[in-house]
User: What shape does this take?
Amino acid sequence: MSEWWTYRLSDFLMFSTRTYRRLFELYNAEVWPAHAVAVGCGVLLLVGAARRRPALARSAAGLLAAAWLWVAWAFHLQRYATINTAAPWFGLAFGIEAIVLTGLALSGVRWCTSADADPRRAVGLALLAAALFALPLVGSILGRPWTQAEIFAIAPDPTVVATLGMLLLMRDDGDRTPSRWSWVGLVAWPIPVGWCLVSGATLWTMDAPEAPLLPVLAAIALIGARLGRAGERAR
Assistant: This one.
């Protein structure tokens, strides 16, 4: 029996790159035209976040919760589980995040009231836009067919990145002082950040050139959150 330290992360991969990409292609074909609804919801999130209309904050959190719940069931449990035994656990994590986001919607989530120059707002909007418009193009840029594109509220990666952006733009009614971590800080962040690491590791084992992308975006989101809180303390 080989020693455990001789194993690499790729030795635990249970599927080939081709199988993984084909999974997205079949998934997209089966759920179409849900993509149109998903993109429409994503645009509503972006418009609501940009305009910061108070009435849209709870709706935004509710839309995100629905997106996480859909990905948990339709992707992780119904499809990814056929090639990855860890997928049911991923589905559970996504379901928990959906519950957390629902709690935020019900508890009075609102937009951050910081100045437009606050880096947290700039980073949040940039991440949200990237999730909606840039991430779906990554595969095509790398030479993969557009039928394998990953879309917000359909696939996990853009859904997670959009959520990180929205978390930078939202706060709940309990988050009234810069020194206090709210629901947003304590509960809503770990699962999206954790998925960025899981996805990055999975793509890295497949030698995918975009493997560092999600971990880098998660780091940017955390830095944006840190800078935003530092700015609040300074004011």
